[in-house]
Amino acid sequence: MHSNHSLILQGRQLNGERKPMPYHTVYDPRGTVNAVPKPLSGRVIGFSGIKLGILDNTKWNGNKLLRKIVAELEAAYQFEAVNYYRKESFSMTAADELISEIVNNNDIVITAIGD
Amino acid sequence: MTRIETTETAETTASTDTGNQLPSRLDPDRDLIEYYFEKGFTDGLPVVPPTPQKIDDMVAALGGSPELVECRIPPRWGNLSRQVLAINMVMAGCLPAYAPVVRASLLALSDPHFNLNGVQATTHVACPLVIVNGPVRREIGMNAGHNLFGSGNRANATIGRAIRLVLLNVGGAWPGDLDKSTFGHPGKYTYCIAENEEASPWAPYHVEKGYDGGDSTIMAIAAEAPHSITNHVADDPQGILDSIVSCMSTFAHNNAVSGGHCAVIIGPEHAATISKHNWTRHDVKSYLWYQARNTFGDIAFQHRYGKVYNRNLPKWYSRELDSEIPVVPSIDHIHLFCAGGESGRFSLFLPGWGHMTSPILRALDGSPPKSGDQICVDGMCLL
Fold it and tell me: Total structural domains in chain B?
């Protein structure tokens, strides 16, 4: 197989299908990306009275970290509600339905890995 | 009271990471190998500089249509056109004859059940391993025997390398950037083997799953590096398999704490001893599943660091401290192959990544098994 392949290439060169060029041709191996620009959400200017969403990614220590954060925030601010959510798996993106629920029912959301 | 201000944000910025599909020209005095290093397009080893002729030949072997996008590769979600695949295959050192295997492998990896996005980005060591079955192994000269995971065979080495270059260049899984693996492992240079069907006393892996022996398939699984299992003494199945059970029954790998799939590769000498006692593939898998256990107390660290439930494991497991926990949830989570050199009383255990990924079995041409059986390795049978 090696020798056959080599012979074919040599034959093509000898037949003049591709003439030597006075430059190298170089290629980009990355491929294009279909990027859809997304603007950032509105920024929060105060915590009191807003609805806080917590998204636990279910990593081993994720909920421990998040509960400590929530405890400190609740000591400082009076939230209208604190809603706790969990991803189905830490290694997969959150389900569209879960993201919609968080968006529709919260003003801000905090998430953490806690590996 | 309004507490959310309208955003001022975010000048919408279009991605600049678009890649450049068009070949460009370079001074003929430039060293092309160094050029590709400088551009950051290599895996750390020198690449074969692509030429127009080599790209044309590779695209033709992929079926033509260079602009056709086969799939998108996460986490960068780059478009893998046949032209881009050909560029990476040439850079890896592939022959055009390898094209069907590389293409099928990347289509398998981009199946949503494989969760390549997670595999690429995880802190764990696992990475995609491709195991080839059927006549294509011999047609392209793959090594299924001595040192099959090691160096020395162009097909094994460059097919795996082409897959890795695509995962890096198109998928953007550059170490420390989108690839967060704490350690990685040597299989992240190349990780592709063939089953030694000729030395196996059993039906090949793809036949177990419903394909004909004359079909050529690839099976992709997210796997750790192989762990060697030594047994030079046992002359019966139980003795050999107990050594494999010993290797599997640790609570340090991801299968133990996160379930999911694993691979076991029985060396031909071990396989011969086992089959001499008329043990089938199913017997071997059943024994391994039945015997490879931890206690829940092991997995939960005896609750020393707080009460552990572990929701990554099946909900039907008992969670008493002395409950026996299988290393994987069912016998079909053990993917059994016979491979390696025909001398040497060794086998291998390859832990997987966990329940977060399912292996994918795919015929090179994408056709389903002629038997009409459902392929369970992609996790669909668990729904």
Answer: 1
